[in-house]
Amino acid sequence: MTATTLVKPRTGPPAAGPDRARRSRRRARTVALLFVLPALLLLGALVVYPVLFSVGRSFFDASGTRFVGGDNYTGMFRDPATLKAIRNTAIWVVVAPALLTGLGLILAVLVEKVRWATAFKLLLFMPMAVSFLAAGIIFRLAYDEDPDKGVLNAAVVSVHDAFKDESTYPTARGRTGVLTGDRDGSYRTTASPGDAVRLPMVGVLPKDLPRQARPAYPAAARKAAAGEVRGVVYLDFTPGGGGTQGRVDPKESGLPGMKVQVLRDGRTVASTTTAADGSFRFAGLAGGSYTVRLPESNFAPPYQGVSWLGPALVTPAIIGAYLWIWTGFAMVLIGAGLATLPRDALEAARMDGANEWQIFRRITVPLLAPVLTVVFVTLVINVMKVFDLVYIIAPGPVQEDATVLATQMWLVSFGGGNNQGLGSALGVLLLLLVVPAMVFNVRRFRRSQR
């Protein structure tokens, strides 16, 4: 008989592994929450609370004591200034991101073919280091209408004057009682062949006379021959005082370079330009009465350039300043996407005979489409809340012509309107316009990560 050994099962406390794992996960969540809590508090205090407060405030009147419902929302769409702000914001959203994305793409492709690509990228990206306040001041000065201050108008005036002569004496005017002034700014008198006429002018400072100017007295003493009209255009002012008005005195200067015309029956018969002593002469004239005329081109004000900050151009001018700042940003992002393109596809296209334009249009741009979309949407979000440039660059008289939703919200709330109910409604409208672009961008990021 064989003895069988019965193995008694071991008894004891159950395994503690699952409980330990649960406690470990709970502890990890607690530690993570402690780390995240400061960020959540800041997010709530700086983002969530202001948004909720603005939404609630938008349903009250300017004082914040009387509930008005949706009156602020309906009222802002009846306000011409708000409608203009919405129109300008739409112009910004359509124009600025498209131009920036296009410029960034072109520059990113071209920079790859430049030997000093890094230095070139650095130069284009440097404006990003400049604050919008400083950039606004820079472009406010650059757009100044005075060519002595504004660099853009200085360049425009230089090019204009290179192709078109400016007026000789913009401040001059004819002596009253001697010359007759016309509505177009010209001056005239009558003469007949054999006459010697005197055309006195005032309003020209002696220091502004041309260097070649000579005394007019000798020319005024000459007699006119038969069949000719002779005369002198002179500054009817004697330095140091004295002299007689309407008569050429010995110390009075001629006005050289003055255009003179002789007309008959309203038609120009001849024209000439005065000499250094202001003298002029028309010969071979038939008998009769003539009109001796100093045309308005002699007195036209000098060309002052373009009114960059006028009502018509202020928004494009500010968009130009925005392009200067953000072009480097778009170029760098698109350049990073360009660096990830498969080079074998580009080389295969070149081997198949495709030129650079075909490669750019049919390979580079389609492959960069996700990057271009992200850049475009990011810039759309950015331009919707642009404020600094518009507020700083646009002068006071045209502030309303350049205003966008962000500046209109500030002006209505704090810039003199003192209606924070309407300002809050504008803020909510701006938030509603930005949210779809933000959601689109977040979804694209998530899809790219998957």
Report on this structure:
- This protein has 450 residues and is α+β, with helices and mostly antiparallel strands.
- It has two domains: 71-156 and 308-449, MetI-like fold; 173-298, no CATH class.
- Helix content is 51%, strand content 10%.
- It is built from 15 helices and nine strands.
- The protein has helices spanning 17-57, 71-76, 80-111, 117-125, 132-142, 151-163, 217-220, 314-339, 343-351, 356-367, 369-384, 388-393, 399-402, 405-413, 420-449; strands spanning 173-174, 180-181, 187-191, 196-202, 229-235, 259-264, 267-273, 279-282, 290-294.
- The strands form two sheets. A five-stranded antiparallel β-sheet has the order 2-3-9-6-7, with no helix packed on it.
- β6 (259-264) and β7 form a beta hairpin.
- α1 packs antiparallel against α15 (420-449).
- The longest helix is centred in the N-terminal third of the chain and has 41 residues, at 17-57.
- The radius of gyration is 39 Å and the shape is elongated.
